[in-house]
Amino acid sequence: MKKIPQRTCIGCKAKKDKKELIRIVKNKEGEITIDRTGKMQGRGAYICDDITCLERAIKTKSLERSFESPIDEGVYENLRGVMIDNKK
């Protein structure tokens, strides 16, 4: 039986299968993007596909701590858009 990688959500701190979470990546140039493939180069952070987890991550600044840099509001808006699109 193949072992399924587990990751921790930065919002709710729950451990889930890697495929169930959305990966956010900071590359060497400092650009922060959403990694739909899960294979992009750079430092990654994972979050549940849930608006409440995103709001909790914004409130506690956990994404900023993960990437050790301030996060542009556009990144959060992009994440909200992805989460809303996934619900449709």
TrEMBL record:
A UniProt-annotated Pfam family: YlxR
Matching SUPFAM superfamilies: YlxR-like
Ranges that cross the membrane: none
YlxR domain residues: 7-80
Signal peptide segment: none
Alphabetical list of InterPro entries matching this protein: YlxR (IPR037465), YlxR-like_sf (IPR035931), YlxR_dom (IPR007393)
NCBIfam families reported in the protein's UniProt record: RNA_bind_RnpM
UniProt-recorded name of the protein: YlxR family protein
Native species: Candidatus Merdicola faecigallinarum
